[in-house]
Design goal:
Layout (H helix, E strand, L loop, with lengths): L14 E4 L3 E5 L3 E6 L4 E2 L2 E2 L7 H15 L8 E3 L13 H4 L3 E5 L2 E2 L2 E8 L2 H10 L1 E2 L2 E2 L9 E7 L2 E2 L11 H8 L1 H24 L2 E13 L2 E5 L8 E5 L15 H10 L12 H19 L5
Antiparallel strand pairs: 1-2, 2-3, 3-7, 4-5, 6-7, 8-14, 9-12, 9-13, 9-14, 10-11, 14-15, 14-16
Helix pairs in contact: 1-7, 4-5, 6-7
Bound molecules: adenosine-5'-triphosphate and magnesium ion.
Adenosine-5'-triphosphate binds next to strand 2, strand 7 and strand 14.
Length: 296
């Protein structure tokens, strides 16, 4: 597999949105989601791409959509570039392996976060209040400890600024008791299945974020699923309670940026070639460990 970097796309299709990492195009009742090789750290998009990162994220999402399809249907239609509209036929080489054709749903405006371990903002809140997003937890937990049960800690999906944590009760007030409970139940069931599977393959999924939508009244999973961009992955061999284990994929980048003296305001500095190569290898390793498949 030769190195392949796609930083931006400019397809002759109406745009649906441009995120930090993905370019999404509107095909009416379907969307074309293209995952580029952009990478962000400390909330800033870095100037360099990570070779093959978009393909790894796409292949992982597709793997998980298949793995979880009996728990909940999802939006995936095809990753075959032959199924893309004629207008983008000339772009097939650029899109191969990194594009998903999906069913456009009516998005539910929550980030459905599930946490199985005490990390990040959850650890900060626990130290102050003994809870995470309002969910009370036993005393005496250490940083990165596994929680007694995975917990559902949704946030709003803010158009601008940071997403705000909300309780399951508030979700239910917005979408109704049944749908709110269905979101929590599906999120936890999918996290449990994936985390159990991943742990056997040497990766801890400490937490993850899912998005859901409605299609013809049916609840489906949308967006990306259980990728390093939407989840906190730790290598089992590097895991230790009481510390913050290294991020499986972004640690080289974060360590180098910390040492570079960068003030964490945009623009971020250019990354050295060995940091880019090491990070690319780490993404590929995540794919191979989790799926047992090589990068395609
Ligand atoms: N099947 C779907 N139907 C409708 N909307 C979808 C579907 N799948 C994903 N989306 C939405 O499409 C957008 C994809 O954009 P993307 O994730 O690249 O950007 P973002 O979430 O706005 O920004 P970022 O993730 O970089 O913070 C998201 O808003 C997501 O909620
Ligand atoms: Mg997103």
């Amino acid at each position: 597999m030769p190195d392949d970097i796609v930083l931006h796309t400019n397809l002759p299709l109406p745009r649906f949105g441009v995120g930090k990492v993905r370019d999404t195009y509107d095909l009416g009742d379907r969307l074309l989601m293209v995952t580029t090789d952009r990478i962000s750290a400390f909330d800033c998009i870095l100037p360099n791409g990570i070779p093959n990162k978009g393909k790894v994220l796409t292949q992982l999402s597709v793997f998980w959509f298949d793995y979880t399809k009996d728990l909940l249907p999802n939006h995936l239609i095809s990753t075959d570039v032959a199924d893309l509209p004629e207008e983008v036929a000339a772009f097939r080489a650029q899109l191969a392996g990194r594009s998903m054709l999906v069913r456009k749903a009516e998005r539910l405006n929550f980030e459905c976060v599930v946490r199985g371990y005490l990390a990040g903002s959850g650890w900060l809140e626990y130290q102050q209040k003994g809870s995470v997003c309002g969910v009370p937890l036993p005393v005496g937990l250490r940083q990165s400890d596994e929680l007694p049960e995975p917990i559902f800690t949704p946030t709003t999906k803010a158009e601008q600024g940071h997403d705000l944590g909300i309780t399951l009760e508030e979700v239910k007030n917005q979408v109704g008791e049944d749908l709110g409970q269905a979101l929590a139940d599906a999120s936890i069931a999918i996290y449990r299945a994936a985390a159990t599977y991943a742990r056997d393959r040497g990766i801890i999924i400490a937490d993850t974020k899912m998005e859901f939508g409605l299609l013809g009244g049916e609840l489906i999973l949308i967006d990306e699923l259980l990728t390093p961009d939407s989840s906190r992955f730790w290598a089992l061999g590097e895991y230790e309670p009481g510390i913050s284990p290294p991020s499986f994929d972004k640690q080289y980048v974060r360590d180098w940026l910390e040492k570079s003296g960068w003030n964490k305001q945009p623009p971020a500095p250019q990354l050295p070639a060995e940091v880019i190569a090491g990070t690319s290898a780490r993404y590929q390793e995540a794919l191979e460990w989790l799926t047992g498949q090589p990068l395609r």
